[in-house]
Amino acid sequence: MKVTLLLENNSMFASYLNSEHGFSAWIEDEDIKVLYDFGFSDNFIKNAEALDIDLRTADYVVLSHGHRDHGCGLKYLLKYYRDTAMARKPIMLVTMEDIFYKKYNFKKNHSSGFDVDRDILEQYFDLRITPEPLWVTKNLCYMGVTEKTNDFEHKVPQVARRLVNGEWVDDVVDEDTQFAYRHKNGKEVSVVAGCAHYGICNIMEYAKKLTGTQQVHTYLGGSHLRIDEVPQSQVDKTVEYVKQQNIKDFYICHDTDLHCKLALWNATPSKEAGTGLVVELD
Question: What does pTM read for this prediction?
Fold first, then answer.
């Protein structure tokens, strides 16, 4: 499997690629190509072009969850499809209808949700609501809705609230999803995550369960740990879990503040992540 970060909060040194608060990854395994998230703007498209990645060849397009830093770039992808005469419909996977709920940040007074209507999506994609895991190749698994295995993650509602049946309610982002890759040795699993709203401990444990493995080889993605949003106790328990996993390569990036990034960085062998990063796994 090969993963290229098309967009992240920061860029790799001297990559000369665009970055923003957002996430997008290009995943390749066997002959299958997956576009996972789209950032906030068209920067992921510009970066893909600079990296000689043809986004029109994606077999699957996946939106991890309904926040604007992962989904608002999709409207630019649709324009790109129109401008380049895209003649095929990739499969689009989302975990649940919740992804279409309106979301609003009342503290900052702006919309925080996904901004493309479902009927528009169905014009461009074979849209599938898929909460269950789906193996897109022999070893690459779309994880669907994450199973919770601890009592300290996925508890704090987001600042943005969602509109359900005409009422603004708390949102813990139940629709969030990731990818798990089972290594060819059958003993290790690697994870590619966006925001990781379910928490990286829940996600890694579920990845092991789905793949029948015991060891996490690589974690690449965010943690959704920010000390202004989650209690220090959650950070401490996450760090302790990571220390015990003996992870070989740990790339912590999007949606992790410096305090939490440093704590996780010192918990396990860590490497820099950013726009332009390429990771290849066997």
Answer: 0.97
